[in-house]
Amino acid sequence: MESEPAHGAARGALRLALAAASFGLPVPAAEAGVVVHATRVVYPAARKEVTVDLRNEGAAPALVQAWIEADAERAPDRPAEVPFALGPAIFRLDPASGQSLRILYTGKPLPADRESVFWLNVLDIPPKAPANPDAPNRLDFAFRHRMKLFFRPAGLKGRPEQAAASVGWSLRNDAAGTVLVAVNPAPYHVSLVRIDLSGSGWSAAAAPVMLAPLSTTTIPLAKPVQTGAVRVRYAFVDDFGATREAEATAPGGTPAS
User: Fold this and answer.
1) How does residue 20 score in pLDDT terms, banded at 50, 70 and 90?
2) Pili assembly chaperone N-terminal domain location, by residue (predicted)?
3) Which residue, 121, 152, 183, sits at the end of a domain?
C-alpha cells in the first residue's frame, strides 16, 4: 500500500512546508490519522463481497472518500467505469472510530483465465482549522492511501503463493542496452519489490515491477552485461502483504566494458 499527500496541489504544499521550516516558521508535521488495515485486497470471484477496515487513530475527525479505479493515476473527479460497487463512498470518521468499506463485484465480465488488477483509494481529509489571524502559519494535508485490488476468478491453475517461484528469467542485449526478461507463466500477478543480480565479481539491481499474469516483461538494466551465469535474488509481496524472498538463475554475466 502507498500513502502520500494528496488532494489538490499536495506536492506544491510540501515544498511550501519545507520552505517554511527552513525559515523557522511553525508548520505541523503531516500525519495521516486514518489507518487502513490492509495493504492489498484479493477478491475471490465466489465471494459476494469483501470488506476493508478503516480506523481513525488521529485526534480529530476526518472526512474520508473512497473509490476504485482501473488506472492508478486517475483522480476521483475523473472516475472510470469499474466492475465494482463501493460503499460508503464518503463519510465522516471520528477519532477512535472504525468503518468497514464494502466492495461488491457487479458481474461485468472479466478475463476468466487470469487475475485482473484495480486500485482502491482512500482519501483522508482532515478538518479545516478555524480562521485565526493570530495563529501561526500552518498547512493542512490530505492523505491518499492506494492499494491493489486483485479480482481472482475461480479455478485458476496453480497457487498464488507459488507464482513468484515459477517466473523465468533471462538477459538480453538489444539496441537500448541490456534488459532483464521476466516471463510469468502463472495466472496471478507477481509484485516484485526488489530485484538483485550478481555475477562473478559484480552486482546490480533492477527496478521493482509488477508482472502481469501470463506475460513477458522487460526490465532495463543500468549497464550492459556479457554472457555467463547470473543469480537473481528477488523479493515479492504475497496475498497478506508480507515480503517473501526467492532466488533463480538467468543467462547473463559480467558487465561489459
Assistant:
1) very low
2) 33-156
3) 152
| Same structural domain, 69 and 137 | yes
Same domain assignment for residues 37 and 119: yes
- Secondary structure (3-state) at 106: coil
pTM of the model: 0.81
Closest of 204, 212, 213 to residue 171, by C-alpha: 204
Q: What percent of the chain has pLDDT over 90?
A: 62
Sheet containing 168-174: give its strands across: 168-174, 177-184, 215-220
Assigned domain for 177 exists: yes
| 132 and 234 housed in the same domain | no
DSSP letter at 200 equals T
3-state secondary structure of 166: helix
DSSP string, 178-209: EEEEEEE-SSS-EEEEEEEEEETTEEEEE--E
Q: Which domain holds residue 177?
A: 160-251
* Contact assessment for residue 5 and residue 14, using Cβ atoms and an 8 Å cutoff: yes
Q: Which CATH number do you get for residue 170?
A: 2.60.40.10
Cα–Cα distance measured from residue 77 to residue 94, given in angstroms and rounded to the nearest whole number = 25
Task: pLDDT band for 128, please (50, 70, 90 cuts).
Answer: confident
Of residues 227 and 123, which shows the higher confidence score?
123
Residue predicted with more confidence, 75 or 39: 39
245 falls within a domain: yes
Question: Residue 228's beta-bridge partner residues?
Answer: none
Q: What would you report as the CA-atom Rg of the chain, rounded to the nearest whole angstrom?
A: 22
Percent of the chain as helix, strand, coil, to the nearest 5: 5, 50, 45
Which of residues 124, 152, 180 is at a domain's end? 152
| 47 is a domain residue | yes
The C-alpha atoms of residue 188 and residue 232 are separated, in whole angstroms, by 20
**pLDDT of the residue at 190:** 98
CB atoms within 10 A of CB 245: 10
